[in-house]
Amino acid sequence: MADIKLNRKSEGAYQYASISRKVPQGLGAAKVALQKFLRSIDNVGWSRREETGRVDRRAFTRYACGESSIFSRREYTEATKSAVSVLIDLSGSTFDNSGGTSIIHTFREVAIHLSNLLRDCKVDYAITGFHGRATYDTELRIVLEDVTFTEIKGWGDNPVNVGPVLGRLPDLVAGSTPDYSALRLSIEELSKLPHQRKVLFILTDADGYNPSRIQQLERVAEKLGIVIVAIGVGATPVETCFRYARNVKSAADAFSASFGTLLKSIGGRNAAQVSTAT
């Protein structure tokens, strides 16, 4: 048994190193976009009565009186801590092929590169897999689904140790897709953290998802200050279910220009909300 575990760990470390070396085109730009995205959430509005910057149209009356401080500048405050949770769908349906490669193998590539990006961005992050088991309740005459979480990287764990586990991600696939329960519990956990910025990435094939239930969870997350970003692989309804989502064909697509555009759109929306509030 010990030899089997050792071999699996060695294989996982090999796969992790092999995938990490194959840097997809656009990964550097994705890192910059991710850094800006995390900072943009902390936009706190405009600083007015400045000597330089953008002309403040509301200050024209002061200018007519001879005042020169008629400019404004957008201010950013760097939060002391950020928390990013990565949730990975490990249900049996992720073994389906997408362009000749199973979805879970693409998830593995995306998760490895995303983990490395988050490590380089120096934010606190955790990676968790989930799958489920469905049972039929004969009295209620309904199907009940239990969710099982697999901790891949816990909060505060050394990122160096996550490689072997991510490398053997396909070995962890099992069961069904308890999407609603997994998201709800992940949102609850993230909401309890003391960090000022909170983002939840979910990698999923969105198999059997109910868009209205997911959107209800997104509204709950938004009230708790959590942004959900979904990445789907293959012909999935992920963009229908989630407000901020991208459906990709490969790991390279996940970090293409569209990824940066998605992060910019979220960052701009959060900046606009804060600016309006101020």
- Tell me the number of strands: 11
Relative strand content: 25-35%
Largest sheet: 6 strands, mixed
**Please, how many helices?**
10
Q: Report low-confidence residues grouped into runs of 5 or more.
A: 1-6, 271-278
Mean pLDDT: 82
Distance between the termini: 60 Å
Order of SSEs: HHEEHEEEEHEEHHEHEHEHH
Which class of secondary structure composition applies to the elements? alpha/beta
Strand order of the largest sheet: 8-7-4-9-10-11
Question: How large, in whole angstroms, is the Cα Rg?
Answer: 22 Å
Helix content range: 40-55%
Shape: globular
Can you describe this structure in just a few lines?
This protein is α/β, with parallel strands linked by helices and 278 residues long. It has helices at 2-21, 27-40, 60-64, 103-120, 163-167, 179-191, 211-223, 238-241, 251-254, 257-277; strands spanning 43-50, 54-55, 71-76, 82-89, 97-98, 101-102, 124-137, 142-153, 197-203, 226-233, 245-248.
Describe the structure.
This protein has a six-stranded mixed sheet, with helices on both faces. A three-stranded antiparallel sheet has the order 1-3-2. Strands 5-6 form a two-stranded antiparallel sheet. It contains ten helices and eleven strands. Helices cover 42% and strands 26% of the residues. The longest helix is centred in the C-terminal third of the chain and has 21 residues, at 257-277. The chain is of the alpha/beta class and 278 residues long.
